[in-house]
Amino acid sequence: MQLYNDTSLDADTFFEQTAELSYQFYVTDSEGNGTFYGAPFRDQTLSSKAIEKVLGGTTYHGMANYPGQTFVTGFFSNELTNSIGVPVEINGEKHALFMRPNIEQQFNEIHILLAVLLVFTILLSMVLVLFSTRYIVKPIKDLTGATEKIAGGEYSIELKQNRKDEIGILARSFTSMSRQLEQVENMRQEFVSNVSHEIRTPLSSIKGYAKLLRSSSPSPEERDNYLQVIESESIRLSKLSRQLLTLAALDKDENITKSEPFTVAPILQNLLQQTRWLWESKGIAINLVASEVTYNGNEELLYQAFENLLTNSIKYTSAGGEISMTLREHQDGLRFTIQDNGNGISLEHQEKVFDRFYKVDTSRSQEKDSSGLGLSIVKKIITLHGGEIIVESELHKGSTFTVMLP
Ligand code: ADP
Prior knowledge:
Heat Shock Protein 90, 5-stranded antiparallel beta sheet, 12 helices, rod-shaped
């Protein structure tokens, strides 16, 4: 009422304008001449007693006393009884003013606000979806595409790796995995082509000589020569298949299944006996110095490793040469060395001799009996025992292979 008293507007204009601010008014005098301002009341009944009270100077609290319902309070009911009545003086005459906020109109305004908020939320969600699609879904799609490529045998994949989060880490791991797979695939292909190459040569020899035997009528001497070639090539083939099987078994079984303590010296002596015909026929002298040490490992595999090293030394040492083998216990374990004064290996080849199928000089006659697998088998066996093998050699002077077993 303070507002009305302060304004210079006439009562009608004042109430009309104030009603526009979402209010409903009912102004009445003592004779019952009443006027409504703002949106109409749904129910305009009001007891004359209430009007009289207000005219008498008491405030009417219709809103506070209006009976509420379970979910909706009386506040929302658009009835004249649900209002507040105050006495007001207009043009010096007593009037009763009943008013209540126009909730519907106010709600409409809230609706608009809610609608704006809703539109804003939808727009924001769309932006977020677009962002997440670009930022999360796209890299995952790229990864899926890359997996499909790898499954199809294509390993050259390019993924964006500059992100620092988990997706970046995944992309980096994936790229490194694909590089490794590519390497494995290349190695596999190389292995297959090496195997086929190693098989093809003896097979074509066998085929050729068998054909000669059948088609020509060779002299007994020629016949013997042909049969000798066929025999040696068959031996070579069976040796190759044995070596391949050994390598496959060693690759498959990373744990040495049979690990037992055994004395090493007797197996070296045994090895010398087994190969006696080989080195004696070449006039090679072998010297063995072995301490009586016990080692916990796979005896069978280590015998094979020592055998490969010894047969190599015999193979690559000229007639009349010397080989010396020593076996000693050191602080860090067992040390076996085999030294020969044979061909020797030049520095550039030394690091590669342990690679599968690596032969220093394929044209050399003694390497006809060679597959390039012997030293790779030795290395594998020694590594499986947690040991190490190194070669020191000088061309035309000789080689020393040292095996360290922890
Ligand atoms: P292979 O099964 O043909 O003997 P290896 O893997 O044992 O093949 O040896 C690889 C190559 O290392 C051989 O081709 C040979 O040239 C060289 N090599 C190995 N041992 C010796 C050695 N004691 N003296 C000289 N060269 C050797």
